[in-house]
Each structure stands twice: as C-alpha cells, then as structure tokens.
C-alpha cells in the first residue's frame, strides 16, 4: 500500500490540502476550499448533516434566503479565550468542533482521491495566532490540535506557515539562496528569513537554516473591515442622527457599526440582543432611510453578501486604477466609484503597520538586507497594489518572486515530513 502524508494549510479565508506520496516523494495533487461553513436555517431531518462546507456553503446560504448561520474566518476565534462555544440547532460547537468541520471536509475529499484513510498530517500555523501573547497562542494551537484529532488525524506535526511557503519555493530553486518570505493572507501576515538549498530538500535537520520568523495579526480581512467602516457603514446609518430628548440631537453610537465590520463579531453577532436599542434609534431618527438598512442587514443576515461586494472591489483594484463598489439587495442600494488612491488611503493604517513590522523584523533579527538573494511573496493579500509597492520600494534591487498564492503553503507543509523523524 502506498504511504501518504497530508500538508494542511487551514487558512482564515481558504484552506488547502496537499497530498504527498511518501514513496515517490512527490505531491500527488492539491485541494483547496474556502474556509466557510453554512448551517441550514431549518434543521432538515432527512439530511445527514445540518451544514455544508466550502463553495457549497455559499450556494446553500443564498438558496436558503441567507437565513441560516454563515460562519467565516473561523481561524480568528482559535485564539479568543472569550469564545467558548456557540449553539446552533440546539447543538453546542466549540472552536475545535468548528475547525474540525473544515479539516474533516478536506480529509474526506483527499481520502477519496487516494482511496485510504490517511491519518498523518503536517498542519500549518501562523507564527503568531494573535498578538505575541503566549497564552493565547498556546490556546489556539491546542484547539487546532484537538480539531485535527476530531477530524481523524492520529499523527500530527505543526509547521509555521511561512516556512511551508518557503519549502514550496525551494522546489523551484537550482542553487542555495538567502530568502525572505512573506505570506500575506486573510488574517495574518507572516515573515521568515531562511537559507533555502535544493540539495537539502527533505533533510532531517533544517533548524540551522531558519534564521528568523515573525508575524503580525493583519491581513486582507483587516482591509475589508477598514473599507466597510469608511465606505460601507455610511449606507447603514453611521451618520444618522436621532432626537435623544426633545430638542437634543445626537449621532447614533459608532459602536453599533463595529459589529458589522469584523467577522469575529459578525459570526456570533446576536442582533436580537441589541435589537430594542436599534429599533429605538430608528424610531427617534424619524425612520431614517439609511438606518433602516442596518435593520435589514441584521434581520436578513446580509453580512456575507456585503463583504463579497467589498472583496470584489478590492480584487478589482489589484489590477485597475478605478472600480465600483455596488450592492443591491432588499432595498439597500450602494453605488460608489472607488479609485485606487482612495482605496490605498483607506487601508493605509494597516499597510503602515505591516511596513513597520517588517522593519522591526529585519532589525531585531539583525538581517543584513544586502545579503538577501531573493524575496518570495505568497497569499492572496500579496496581490494588493500597496503591498507590492511596499516590497518593491523597500528592496528595489532584489527580485520579487511569487508562486501559487493559494496553494504554496499547503505544498510546502507536505514537504515537511522530516518533522516526524525527531
Ligand atoms: N486578487 C486579489 N487581490 C487582493 N486581495 C486578494 C486577491 N485575491 C484574494 N485576495 C484576498 O486574499 C485573502 C485570502 O488569502 P489567502 O487564501 O492567502 O489567506 P488565508 O491563507 O486563508 O489566510 P491566513 O493565512 O491569514 O490564515 C483574502 O483577504 C482575499 O480577499
Ligand atoms: Mg495563509
């Protein structure tokens, strides 16, 4: 029987699994799915499962009139000690249960391809799950480990995601290089500086080659949240005023809108709990048209579809100078022109934090920039124009390389089988 190992990149936005044939030492194939779960609105007793995963989750959510529970960016709850569980259809799900749903889906699809129940996996993890708080980080890795166990893996090793990316890049090299790798995803931005050497592929001890790793909790989701805040929330009443007491006019609290900007809040946002306040603001705003959109958004679970429109705008601006941000659903009508310059202003704070972090990473690890032979960038967010400029400006003399932005990490994880030999 053939021996296989899975390299698994459980990502904030996308999750990938590379099937590695341990005998031929080659990747057989790679599967990728969006990291999404949709729990049907109605518990359908005829169905085996009450949820769907990946691409199918989007279709089911739309077909179901967007009424069920749509869960996105689950990875972000791994490090939240405040999250213990959520109840869906009277069943409790903790963080590991939710993550296990994604891992199980990937494993099931891969097992079907190879015709075996493969229980050995190298799973990626960001350098820091959150900020560099050790307790939160340990909590996140333990939860991920538990999820892997629930999904049916019995032999698991963890590897930093950017090292995975580096090993994928190493496959394309013909000589030894000092490489700076940047993996910019949906939730985190990770760096690693290491020596890559095609002669060392698969060798047991690569520790000496890893010169530095680091990361920051900013990614494409942060850009989308910033865009929602600046260009989305005004359509949902961010500037709405209401009559607090006769003659006293105030603006509705901004905190209401924080809930609709972040996925972490949106996933488990209980609109009902603050519903009375929202109804009061609506009434005392003189039934403001835009504030009504907030009620429509919450009542109809429209969050994901609004964020899809935001992501479309972002992706268009990776190759165009100007695009539109449009959204038309249940009398919510958004039609905006957005130029790249405007977009870059909106995400500037986050891009500056990434820039500063990169600077700190280079300094703290005493990285001599003149010794870097090449740069390898991966992850969906590496395509954002400001991110491309950041690296081009910072390292004008170093070639910028990229591979498959969505599968590199999983592939490189699959090349990390040496971790089992410790
Ligand atoms: N063409 C594009 N231009 C800009 N951003 C893009 C593009 N395509 C995808 N993205 C963004 O890239 C992010 C997803 O990238 P990726 O799949 O690498 O992340 P991930 O691995 O799921 O997240 P993480 O590694 O942080 O856990 C999303 O924020 C998505 O909106
Ligand atoms: Mg990633």
TrEMBL record:
Record key words, sorted: ATP-binding, Nucleotide-binding
Q: Which Pfam families does the record match to this protein? A: HSP70 (PF00012)
Spell out the InterPro entries in the cross-references: ATPase_NBD, Hsp_70_fam, YegD-like
Q: What is the protein name for this chain? A: Hsp70 family protein
């Amino acid at each position: 029987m053939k021996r296989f190992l899975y390299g698994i990149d459980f990502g904030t936005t996308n999750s990938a699994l590379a099937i590695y044939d341990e005998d031929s030492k080659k990747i057989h194939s790679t599967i990728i799915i969006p990291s999404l779960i949709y729990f049907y609105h109605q518990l359908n007793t005829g169905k085996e499962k009450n949820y769907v995963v990946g691409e199918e989750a989007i279709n089911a959510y739309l077909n179901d009139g967007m009424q069920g529970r749509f869960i996105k960016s689950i990875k972000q709850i791994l490090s939240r000690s405040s999250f213990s569980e959520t109840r869906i259809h009277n069943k409790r799900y903790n963080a590991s249960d939710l993550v296990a749903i994604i891992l199980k889906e990937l494993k099931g699809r891969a097992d079907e391809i190879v015709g075996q129940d493969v229980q050995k996996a190298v799973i990626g993890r960001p350098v820091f799950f959150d900020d560099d708080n050790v307790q939160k980080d340990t909590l996140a890795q333990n939860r991920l480990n538990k999820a892997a166990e629930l999904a049916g893996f019995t032999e698991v090793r963890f590897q930093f995601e950017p090292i995975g990316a580096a090993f994928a890049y190493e496959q394309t090299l013909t000589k030894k290089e000092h490489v700076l790798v940047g993996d910019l995803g949906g939730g985190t931005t990770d760096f690693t500086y290491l020596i890559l050497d095609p002669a060392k592929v698969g060798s047991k001890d690569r520790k000496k080659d890893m010169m530095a790793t680091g990361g920051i909790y900013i990614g494409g989701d942060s850009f989308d949240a910033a865009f929602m805040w600046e260009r989305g929330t005004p359509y949902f009443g961010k500037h709405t005023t209401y009559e607090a007491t006769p003659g006293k006019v105030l603006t509705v609290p901004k905190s209401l809108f924080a809930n609709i900007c972040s996925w972490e809040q949106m996933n488990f946002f209980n609109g009902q709990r603050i519903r009375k306040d929202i109804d009061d603001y609506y009434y005392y705003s003189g039934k403001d048209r835009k504030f009504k959109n907030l009620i429509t958004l919450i009542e109809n679970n429209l969050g994901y579809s609004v964020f899809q429109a935001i992501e479309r705008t972002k992706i268009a601006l990776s190759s165009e100078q100007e695009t539109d941000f449009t959204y038309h659903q249940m009398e919510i009508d958004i039609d905006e022109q957005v130029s790249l310059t405007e977009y870059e202003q909106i995400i500037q704070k986050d891009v500056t934090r990434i820039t500063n972090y990169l600077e700190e990473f280079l300094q703290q690890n005493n990285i001599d920039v003149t010794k870097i032979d090449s740069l390898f960038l991966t992850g969906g967010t590496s395509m954002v124009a400001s991110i491309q400029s950041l690296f081009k400006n910072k390292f004008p003399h170093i070639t910028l390389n990229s591979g498959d932005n969505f599968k590199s990490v999983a592939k490189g994880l699959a090349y990390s089988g040496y971790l089992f030999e410790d």
